[in-house]
Amino acid sequence: MSTPFLSVQDLTVDFHTEDGVVHAVDGLSLGVEKGTTLGVVGESGSGKSVTALAVLGLHNPETAKLSGEILLDGRELIGAPRSVMERIRGAKAAMIFQDPLTSLSPYHTIGKQIGEVFRRHTGASRAAARDRAVEMLTRVGIPQPKLRVDDYPHQFSGGMRQRAMIAMALVCDPDLLIADEPTTALDVTVQAQILDLLRDLQEQTGTAIILITHDLGVVANTAHEVLVMYAGRAVERGTVREVLGEPHHPYTWGLLASMPRLGAPVDVPLRPVRGAPPSLINVPSGCPFHPRCDYPALAGPGLCRAERPELSPHRGHGDACHLTLARKQEIVGTLVQKREIVR
Amino acid sequence: MKETGPMEETAPERDTAQAGTGSAAGRAAEPLLELSGLEKHFPITSGLVFKRQAGRVHAVDGIDLTVHAGETLGLVGESGCGKSTTGRLVARLLEPTGGSIRYGGRDITHASRRELRPIRAEIQMIFQDPYSSLNPRHTVGGIIRGPMEINGIDPPGGRDRRVRELLEIVGLNPEHYNRFPHEFSGGQRQRIGVARALALDPRLIVADEPVSALDVSIQAQVVNLLQRLQRELGIAFLFIAHDLAVVRHFSQRVAVMYLGKIVEIADRDSLYERPRHPYTHALLSAVPEVGLESAPGTGPRERIRLAGDVPSPIAPPSGCRFRTRCWKAQEKCAAEEPPLVRLEGNREGHLTACHFPEAPTVHGRDVVLDPALA
């Protein structure tokens, strides 16, 4: 099989701090094809955002140490010179952030900020850039784009700002779009609009999207494939149907069982994952999830504490857990029967 | 000013708003909390020296609600709909501009600080942000003792013992008495906030987005904790949240707010299974569900996409406030404000404010109103 459009192999990101080395990302591999969306799910501190920043070379090289391989369209990005990364960012790969208000400059009009990206990468004239900005605002569904192009960010509502950010990210038709919690700050009705917009734009342009979120519902509705992260590692990977329909990792079960859902029976209490996520300075030995897991005893004495499970198999539906497949299926069956997990 | 005695049964909307709280005991009794026609308008001033009022933000614009003892009323809506302002009015952290608040049969709408003192102990708040709602310079013990000291309450066995007891109730180690908030994670801090709210044995807790800042697995821990407290201690909750799934899980009755008004209120099952207001429909259909039937390109699931954003509460639309985003709006909606009433085919206590309500159930329909998506 050929290499995917974006291929990350064995990525490690360490931050050197006064308290010690923070292992933010630890041996992560992922791949995204053009025209598909990879949902990256995990809680705060699981390394989702750090991965995104590392792919785009937006980490601070003074404090962050990267190793591994990041191939974008076959080109290695780790250690690529700054000038190369600057050409790639915005043109080939772009990013949308969670909070559009802090990501837009308050001193410049929306049109100028969108046009700036376009001019920098294409060398277009001011007038052409402005036309392009109006075109992009139209595409992302801003009403009266010819008037609104001269507005400042504060004159836009939250949903419109997020649309403007998407317009800015897509102005050079990037092949890869990384959206880091793009709808977390928005209301549900606006969130639905933005997710639809991303899906429609992807259909038109064939962009590969990495959608980072903590919300499994968003993933189920938008992504083709899912990667579940815990403590800087991938613990489960597969298509949406595989991971949400036949989840294999105890952490994925925990996420599913702790989420209140509209379609779930209301008399079944939520079943939270006990404890709290680990410190990334002292990551637990073996499987990082073992202190919060309910099933280490079933995997064999001391195995989960001693040995780190690898994500296997390398392609398709895989998970990093020592339990046997039969055992996992048995446990999922019980959880579904107890209605703690609803498919 | 003391108003006791049985509640008058004259006002029709009060009559209906009180009904439909399911079965259970205490329904006939007077509600613990009763809001009628409650309003909060924030003035907008202009001018530097001579301030003049340039407009008003209609944050809460005439709402009727009741909360019974031991019951949870969920209040949902999008940002800016006035749900948090309502919570702050109930806790009397804000002065209402109109309407009335009755608590335990007494009118406390404009009660003075002194009159409020005994009531303040009974109505407590839990805030959204576990970082800014705890004083970083105080120890956990000091934070939880605070309410007892201010109110001069000496529980049997002493305050310190009570604090340790409370820490245990909320699932924290009593040994952590002398630690500071920064030593705790977000979920643990929210537990400290809960312990503080419990310190005075409240009868009503106003919980304003208590879990929305927490990670999913931690969120479930706190929801379960609040649920256990409600069950074991019989505390009534006004549970304010934007997450419809969390509210469904936690509330017996649910009210939906839009631009300072209640557009629909019902017991939980009635609201989630037979919503009649188009806005409630739109909200429910916008929640991304994990269920695989909603995976891209599969199965029918009702899907309504509203156009645009919530209008400004400074100049809310005439008539029905939802009409500017509603796909059913007609002339009548601009001219006449729909009353909050019980519609035909609805359960008692299920009230809807709409001229053209939805059929009780809608399946597999696809309404797209967003010009960007058309």
Keywords:
heterodimer; A: 343 residues; alpha/beta; seven-stranded mixed β-sheet; four-stranded antiparallel β-sheet; B: 374 residues; eight-stranded mixed β-sheet; 14 strands; disordered N terminus; disordered C terminus; ATP hydrolysis activity (chain A); ABC_transporter-like_CS (chain A); AAA+_ATPase (chain A); nucleotide-binding (chain A); Peptide ABC transporter ATP-binding protein (chain A)
Mean pLDDT of chain A: 91
Multimerization status: heterodimer
Largest sheet of chain B: 8 strands, mixed
Using only C-alpha atoms, the radius of gyration of chain B works out to: 22 Å
Number of strands of chain A: 11
Shape of chain A: globular
* Relative helix content of chain A: 25-40%
Mean pLDDT rating of chain B: 84
Spatial shape of chain B: globular
Helix residue percentage of chain B: 25-40%
Low-confidence stretches of chain B: 1-27, 294-300, 362-366, 368-374
Please state the structural category of chain B: alpha/beta
Q: Which residues of chain A sit in consecutive blocks of at least 5 with pLDDT less than 50?
A: none
How many helices of chain B in DSSP terms?
Answer: 11
Topology:
The complex is a heterodimer of chains A (343) and B (374).
Chain A: E1 6-17, E2 20-32, E3 37-41, H1 48-55, E4 64-72, E5 75-76, H2 82-88, E6 93-96, H3 100-103, H4 110-122, H5 126-139, H6 145-148, H7 158-170, E7 176-180, H8 188-205, E8 208-213, H9 216-222, E9 225-230, E10 233-239, H10 240-245, H11 250-258, H12 296-299, H13 303-306, E11 318-319, H14 325-337
Helix pairs in contact in A: 4-5, 4-7, 5-7, 7-8
Chain B: H1 12-18, E1 33-46, E2 52-67, E3 72-76, H2 83-90, E4 98-103, E5 106-107, H3 113-120, E6 123-126, H4 140-150, H5 159-169, H6 186-198, E7 204-208, H7 216-233, E8 236-241, H8 244-250, E9 253-258, E10 261-267, H9 268-273, H10 278-286, E11 303-305, H11 331-335, E12 341-342, E13 351-352, E14 366-368
Parallel strand pairs in B: 3-8, 3-9, 6-7, 7-8, 11-14
Antiparallel strand pairs in B: 1-2, 1-4, 4-5, 9-10, 10-13, 12-13
GO biological process, one term (chain A): peptide transport
Organism (chain A): Planobispora longispora
Keywords (chain A): ATP-binding, Cell membrane, Membrane, Nucleotide-binding, Transport
